[in-house]
Hints:
Blueprint: E1 8-9, E2 16-18, E3 25-27, E4 33-38, E5 42-47, H1 52-65, H2 67-78, H3 84-106, H4 108-119, H5 127-136, H6 148-155, E6 160-163, E7 175-178, H7 180-186, H8 191-194, H9 204-224
Helix pairs in contact: 1-9, 5-9
Amino acid sequence: MQIKAVLYWDLRGDTMKLCSDCKLEKSVDDFYSQEKYSKRKGKYIYYQPYCKNCATLRVLKWEDNNRERKNARMKKWSSKPENIPTLRRNQKNYRMRGKQLEWQRNNKDKLREYNKKREEKIHKITDQEWNACKNYFNNECAYCGMTYTEHKNQHNQDLHREHVEPEGKDDLSNCIPSCKNCNSSKGTKLINEWYNISNKKFSVERLTAINKWLNEDYKKYMENNACFLI
């Protein structure tokens, strides 16, 4: 899909820019840009008005609302000879993921042990910070929306402290509440690899909330040193 957007140039050399969608001020590195040239202005840089995260959300939302058009475009794209190498590479990656699933089915004991260690990974988060994080997400799994009460009834335990970036920090900047099923399903995958339009539990609204918390709102809690409620 191609998104038609109004682009503009930044001649001031500013390093920060306000996203027109999420209304957050971010580094210009968080915006897609394109180098342009004109006889009157010389070289200049165009920046999209919305950040990379919001650009992804726009694409996902469009695909969700236009599945038939998306499939037709994909069929047309895959029929072009120049795209065959990329298509084969994607198919190879898909088969490799299939082998990973086969290994998981044949090594359930090892998988359970890995998941147990992952769940027990120590977070440098106080109880007060954890409660604030859960409150931000309405005491629900940030991925699928399962409530704390539902999770307690089904699994007899609290929501999990999910490491969004598997090898990332062990503090509030990398933590969201997750149900047991989502936590295990995501495993060591990056969020964009797992939580996308192909995931039945995916929600654009929930992904927006996750990005807003990780990029901005957890900082507000830390600065105020009080429970952050929305």
